[in-house]
Amino acid sequence: MLRTLKQHEVTTNQALTPLHGRPRAPAAALRHLAKVQLALVPHPPKGLPEDNHVGVVQTDAKHVAELLLESEKGLARKRVASAAADVASQQVAWQLLAWQLLASQLLASQLLASQLLASQLLASQLLASQLLASQLLASQLLASRRARRSS
Predict the structure, then answer these.
(1) CA dist 14 → 8, 23, 48, 84, 139 (Å)
(2) Cβ atoms < 10 Å from Cβ of 34
(3) What one-character DSSP code corresponds to residue 145?
(4) Those residues with Cβ within 8 angstroms of residue 73's Cβ, 6 or more apart along the chain or in another chain
(5) Which one of 6, 60, 95, 134 is most buried, counting C-beta atoms within 10 A?
(6) Which of 55, 27, 28 is nearest to 40 (CA)?
(7) 32: Cβ–Cβ under 8 A, 6 or more apart, which residues?
(8) Positions of the region Disordered (predicted)?
(9) pLDDT computed for residue 14 by the predictor
(10) How far apart are CA 104 and CA 44, in angstroms?
(11) Taking phi first (over 0 means left), then psi (-120 to 50 degrees means alpha), and beta for anything else, what does residue 79 get?
(12) How far is it, in rounded angstroms, from Cα 112 to Cα 120?
């Protein structure tokens, strides 16, 4: 069934106008337009030459395409902004991970230094106790020699 020019304009406008106060998404507008069969009217309305009538329908379709292209550009800008935000958040996450790695390496080196210091302290205490034990043994030996000489 062929539609008249006015019916075609109404159908095209319905595809682009908001639905219950909400703007229609470009994809929804495309789906709505896909349901509408666009057809050229075989006879122009009275008073218009045939070329003008075809031009009106083509201009209307071109206008619809331009509107859809503009809304797609807006969506593309939003996608680019979203991707840029994702990249920025990933960079922040990598920087945070790098700082955490650096902090854990610093903590590990501090732990290693404290363990080394503790082992050196333990070694010096062991050496001091060995020195004390050898001094005690030497004094006992000296005391036993003196006791033999006295007897």
Answers:
(1) 10, 11, 25, 35, 113
(2) 10
(3) H
(4) none
(5) 60
(6) 55
(7) 14, 15, 24
(8) 1-22
(9) 54
(10) 80
(11) alpha
(12) 12
- Residue 41 near residue 53 (C-beta atoms within 8 A): yes
Alpha helices, DSSP H only, in the chain? Answer: 5-16, 26-35, 50-150
For the chain, what's the residue count? 151
pLDDT in tens, 45-82: 555 555 554 555 566 777 777 878 888 888 888 888 89
- For 22, the 3-state DSSP assignment is strand
Does the predicted TM-score (pTM) go above 0.70? no
Take residue 15 and report the two structure tokens written for it: 């595809």
Per-residue model confidence (pLDDT) at position 1: 39
Residue type for 69, please? Answer: L
Mean pLDDT of 109-119: 97
How is residue 17 written in tokens?
Answer: 């106008």
Cα dist from 41 to 52, 63, 64, 94, whole Å: 12, 18, 18, 61
